[in-house]
Structure formats: structure tokens, C-alpha cells
Design goal:
Mean pLDDT: 95
Low-confidence stretches: none
CATH topology of the largest domain: BirA Bifunctional Protein, domain 2
Bound molecules: histidyl-adenosine monophosphate
CATH architecture of the largest domain: 2-Layer Sandwich
Radius of gyration: 28 Å
Strand content: 15-25%
Number of domains: 2
Structural class: alpha+beta
Number of strands: 16
Largest sheet: 8 strands, mixed
Shape: elongated
Oligomer: single chain
CATH superfamily of the largest domain: Bira Bifunctional Protein, Domain 2
């Protein structure tokens, strides 16, 4: 048997309803904040990611899944922002009224060392806001992420924020970093040695434990912010304070992607081990112009769905039971099963109920066992007598109560009335 690759996961029907819970909540909260869904391809020209994510990042240097095609070299998206902005630009959304607010639920691919919460193929819920430069937009995007995590029972996730300034403030900061790292240059990993000249801030983000130890006391960007960037950050902080959104300023967050300017943030969950960042985002005011578009401010975030689900399980989120069957119709004999199929189709079409009939030729007892296994809410048995007389009963599988029905007249109405009445009485106190 050919098996699944490491770094990728199957989602079985017993788990997919958990994914749907997250996906639905995400789409609902996105609507509350006025975001609409956008879809874009799984792969792009490699150059798009090199230019936007940045050639000195781990993602571009080590983690991209790239194939040489006939006309170009293509890469499976390692994240959503670059492809999303390419689509926004190419489809003229920048000519519409601002801000444009879009969200996406995508798979993404990074060739990293596989571990819990770190996969080759993973999934993101992402949201991007284009055309708003004001710190109130940063506050709104962070509030959106916070609201979604709270909705998913993850109020425990801590928000860390920072400002990594603009290219102006970074010039002075890069000099300070080079000064700091110069004595350790030979000890850094080979990738970081090459980053020293081009982008010394990336050294702070290196995953190697040796480099991490060296970078521990490196200067922090917050000490080098220009007046405008500082003011932007201060205003964001007071807006978050005003909204009652708790945060910690963490001057060590630089993020692993090059397009960020000013605000960056991460949500950390303490319940899922080493890969604890469940959401990351920030402002990227230079990305759209870097791609050849007009200078346009933008910002957003993405959540790792696998990590979010791990965290939800860790905090004991109640996903409920996946309920898949309202009525199971057991039948014996060819005429009886034909009748069962007709009743099932009519009830599905007229009432929107989830109805199952026997399709595997099981014996009567085995059919009853199966009805229990799939947690059918009601059972209808059609045997020879029921078929001949038209008299049968629907059994509430939880209470055992039987309601008489006429198979030849008003079956759907009786079933619907019973279903509704049982639901109402189940909600009433004894
Ligand atoms: P990112 O921090 O690279 O940001 O990824 C966002 C989230 O995706 C992470 O916080 C993590 O939960 C999840 N994630 C990343 N890599 C993996 C992996 N190998 N396995 C499992 N989960 C993973 C971005 O991707 C930016 N595009 C976010 C953004 C949107 N910034 C502005 N707009």
C-alpha cells in the first residue's frame, strides 16, 4: 500500500466536523468585520514569493516547494498574503473604494522539520485589509483575530505586539545589529552569515539554537523607531487599551517574512507545546508597490488551523457530537427496501431531513445495531406486515417512545411533527 507522506495529514469524517466548526466560526466573524471571501491559486510563479516574502527568509531559502514548469518556475504557496495581494492587484480591487477587506481559508506548504503543529502541508485562515494606513485599522484587524480566537474558546491565547518600523528606522537599526553581531560572525550558521550584510534582522529570527543564544541580547528595533512609527505604535496601544484587548509588547517579535512594516503581532497558546504561535500578522505597507502596484498601505493576519484545533482540544473545547442521521429506515425484503428508498427520498426532499436506508444487505439485527452506531435519532422498521397494512411506528432512539405512523398517508407530516415536538419537550425542564 502506498501511504501518506510525512508532513501531511488526512482528516477523517470523525474529525472533519471539528474543522467545519472552525471554518464556519471564521467565516461568521469575518462577516461581522465586513470581510468577504477571496480565492486564489495554490501555486504562483516562484518570483512572487522571492520578491514579497524575501530572499533572505527561511521560507524562501529553505522551505519552498518549487517545480520547474514549461514556461516558468512555480512554487506551492508557503503563505497566503503574497498570492492574495497579487490577486487583489491583478483584478483591479485597488480601483474600488477603500479599504478592501478579504479573507481566505487555504492550504499552504513549507518544507520544514516536521513536528507537532509543524507540517509540510498546513492550513490557514487569513484576513487582509488593503488601503487603510491609520492605526485604527491595525486595532480593528487585531480585534478581529482576538474575537475569532475567543469564539473558538481560546481566550487563553496571549497577544504579543511590536513595531518593526519602516525602512527609514531600520537603516539605523541594521547598523546597530551589525555592530552587535560582528564579533560572533564566524559562529553564526552559514545562512545567517550571508544575512549579516543583506538583512541582519533575520538573524534574530533564526531557528538554530546557537544563533538564538547569540541573538539573545541583540539591540531591539523599538529603540530605533522614527517619530511617525513611534506615534503609530503608541496610538495602536491606546486603541487596544480602549477596546479592553490585553497585550504584551514584545520587542523581540520580528516575524519570519520580509514584507512587514510597523505593527507586527502574534497570538501564543501555552497549551500546545513548542509550536505555540497560533496566529501571526502585521502591516505591510511596502508590499503592493514592491509587486509593481501603487504605494498602498495594507495589513492582515493568518491563523494556523491545525495549531488552533490542537489548542481547542487542549483547552477542552466542546465540539458536540457530529450528528449525521435523523431517521434510519430498517427493512427486510426487496419490496420493503424499495418502499424505504421512496420514503427516504421524499423526506429528504420535502423536509430536509437526513435519512438513511440499508444499502449493504445487512440482516435485521445488524441493521438495528448500525442505527445505534450512527446515532440515528429515529428508527422506522418496514417489514412485511408494515408494508401490507401501512401501519408502522417511528421510534425515538433516545427515549424509546414510539409514534404510530401511516406509511400510505401523511408520513412526512407525522415525522416532522414528532421531530419538532420532541425537540421542544427536550428543551423544557422536567
Ligand atoms: P506566518 O506567521 O508565517 O504568517 O504563519 C501564520 C500561521 O500559520 C502561524 O502562526 C502558524 O500558526 C501557521 N503555520 C505556519 N507555518 C506552519 C507549519 N509549517 N505548520 C503548521 N502551521 C504553520 C503568515 O503566513 C502571514 N501570511 C500572515 C499574514 C497575513 N500577515 C499579514 N497578513
Amino acid at each position: 500500500m502506498i501511504t501518506r507522506n510525512k508532513g501531511a495529514e488526512d482528516v477523517m469524517p470523525s474529525e472533519s466536523y471539528i474543522w467545519q466548526t472552525v471554518e464556519r466560526a471564521a467565516a461568521n466573524v469575518a462577516q461581522l468585520y465586513g470581510f468577504s471571501e477571496i480565492r486564489f491559486p495554490t501555486f504562483e510563479k516562484t518570483e512572487l514569493f522571492v520578491r514579497s516574502v524575501g530572499e533572505t527568509t527561511d521560507v524562501v531559502q529553505k522551505e519552498m516547494w518549487t517545480v520547474k514548469g514549461r514556461e516558468s518556475t512555480y512554487t506551492l504557496r508557503p503563505e497566503g498574503t503574497a498570492g492574495c495581494m497579487r490577486a487583489v492587484l491583478q483584478n483591479g480591487l485597488l480601483n474600488e473604494s477603500m479599504p478592501q477587506k478579504v479573507y481566505y481559508q487555504i492550504s499552504a506548504f513549507r518544507h520544514e522539520n516536521v513536528q507537532k503543529g509543524r507540517l509540510w502541508e498546513f492550513h490557514q485562515f487569513g484576513a487582509e485589509m488593503v488601503g487603510a494606513a491609520d492605526p485604527s485599522a491595525d486595532a480593528e484587524v487585531i480585534a478581529f483575530a482576538r474575537e475569532l480566537l475567543d469564539t473558538l474558546g481560546l481566550s487563553e491565547a496571549r497577544l504579543h505586539i511590536n513595531s518593526i518600523g519602516c525602512p527609514e528606522c531600520r537603516r539605523a537599526y541594521y547598523d546597530k545589529l551589525r555592530e552587535y553581531f560582528a564579533p560572533y560572525r564566524e559562529q553564526l550558521c552559514s545562512t545567517c552569515q550571508s544575512r549579516f550584510d543583506k538583512n541582519p534582522m533575520r538573524i534574530i529570527d533564526c531557528k538554530s539554537p546557537e544563533d538564538k543564544a547569540i541573538a539573545k541580547d541583540a539591540p531591539v528595533i523599538t529603540d530605533y523607531l522614527c517619530d511617525e512609527c513611534r506615534e503609530h505604535f503608541d496610538t495602536l496601544r491606546s486603541l487596544l487599551d480602549g477596546m479592553g484587548i490585553a497585550y504584551e509588547v514584545d520587542p523581540r517579535i520580528v516575524r519570519g517574512l520580509d514584507y512587514y512594516t510597523r505593527t507586527v503581532f502574534e497570538f501564543i497558546s501555552d497549551s500546545i507545546g513548542a509550536q505555540s504561535t497560533i496566529c501571526g500578522g502585521g502591516r505591510y505597507d511596502g508590499l503592493i508597490s514592491e509587486m509593481g502596484g501603487p504605494q498602498t498601505p495594507a495589513l492582515g493576519f493568518a491563523m494556523g488551523i491545525e495549531r488552533v484545533i490542537l489548542a481547542m482540544k487542549a483547552v477542552g473545547y466542546d465540539f458536540g457530537e457530529p450528528s449525521v442521521c435523523d431517521l434510519y429506515i430498517a427493512s427486510m425484503g426487496a419490496d420493503e427496501s424499495r418502499r424505504a428508498a421512496v420514503i427516504a427520498n421524499s423526506l429528504r426532499r420535502e423536509g430536509g431531513f437526513r435519512v438513511e436506508t440499508e444499502l449493504c444487505g445487512r440482516g435485521f439485527k445488524a441493521q438495528l445495531k448500525y442505527a445505534n452506531k450512527i446515532k440515528a435519532k429515529y428508527l422506522l422498521v418496514i417489514g412485511q406486515t408494515e408494508l401490507e397494512t401501512g401501519k408502522a411506528s417511528i421510534k425515538n432512539m433516545k427515549t424509546g417512545e414510539q409514534t404510530p405512523v401511516d406509511l400510505n398517508s401523511g408520513f412526512n407530516d407525522t415525522f416532522m411533527n414528532t421531530y419538532v415536538a420532541d425537540r421542544v419537550s427536550a428543551e423544557l425542564p422536567d
